[in-house]
Amino acid sequence: SIPLIVGVGSLLGIDHRLPDDNKGIWKRKRQLDLAYAVIATEIGGALWNGGQTRLGRTFWESIDSSAFSALTVQGLKYTFSRARPYQSSSPHHWFQGSCCQSFPSGEVTLQASFVTPFIIEYHQDHPWVWGLEALPLYDSLARMKTQGHWQTDVLSGWALGTAFGIFAHNRKLPFFLSVMPHSVMLGWHTDF
Prior knowledge:
By secondary structure, the protein is an all-alpha fold. Helix content is 59%, strand content 0%. The protein is elongated, with a radius of gyration of 18 Å. The termini are far apart.
């Protein structure tokens, strides 16, 4: 799906540099705060709830999804070495070397990989959970407004994070839960 997004994006000419807007809610610091909050929420939620509850298992799926997608994103960034909008006015500067790591967006991938297991698990019981898609949407807009990514970077990151979220949710047992000590299955909340 990622080559399709980039190919269609190039054909349609959707990649263009937005005016730099590094203020207010789009400020780079806010984007980083969101990324750190998501990571802390994933780890804290997984350890607090353990792996025996529905919620706890979903947190562990989210950790799997985020970890595997982060490794994939980093490999793709090194492979394609695309220049970021602040580095080039053209979205066609690929294979530029270690200076350039625009494709795909790692932070948008993180947001999508975090929310997807929760949406899949809870969308029938709690339709409001679709509102979590606001996280990758916000991050996509913010990364483009601060000229950190092109449109196809964020769309590909969103698709990649969603794909890993689906994969992690469909596994019989979350990977990281399976390699942790058995006491993690119970969760910290059982000790209080």
